[in-house]
Amino acid sequence: MLRDKNLIPLSHQHQRALALCVRIERAYPIRNSDLEVWQREITQLFQNEVAVHFAAEERVVFPAVRRFDELVPLVEELIADHAELRASLARAGANEMSAIELADFARGLSTHIRKEERQLFEQMQKLMHLDELAVLGQALADALADAEQACQMPAEITKVRPAK
Q1: C-alpha to C-alpha distance for 149 and 160, rounded to whole angstroms
Q2: Residue 89 and residue 50: Cα distance in Å, rounded?
Q3: Is the dihedral of CA 125, 126, 128, 132 positive or negative?
């Protein structure tokens, strides 16, 4: 299903986060000497975009869809994912992640994003009226205003390497 224009800002942020997950996956196993750079990049993405993204979902999207009984369990699962991801992001900010934890973080973030895109957003588009999505879109625009929109270039160590 084509993404409704009112959800596209969240989808664009999802794409940037998924790109990081792919780079982590392709770089695995990550050398201990490179962990600090990876964690710094994760922390920067969180500070610049993900923190605002999570807050927007929690203040705007999740309350809007809780009125659909069939979506309540999914919303609860996504909120729990946010808590787990925030804990991982805090570990990255403290430079405490191991290579395995970094890979687990990337898998968890990727799985979370795919749940939102493939389950939550698809159901929202089926269940909500266009005017409701438009109101939600305006509220999201306001909630996402503080997120940086600039492209962040990865550090040399964290760039995707050609397959050997």
Answers
A1: 22
A2: 10
A3: positive
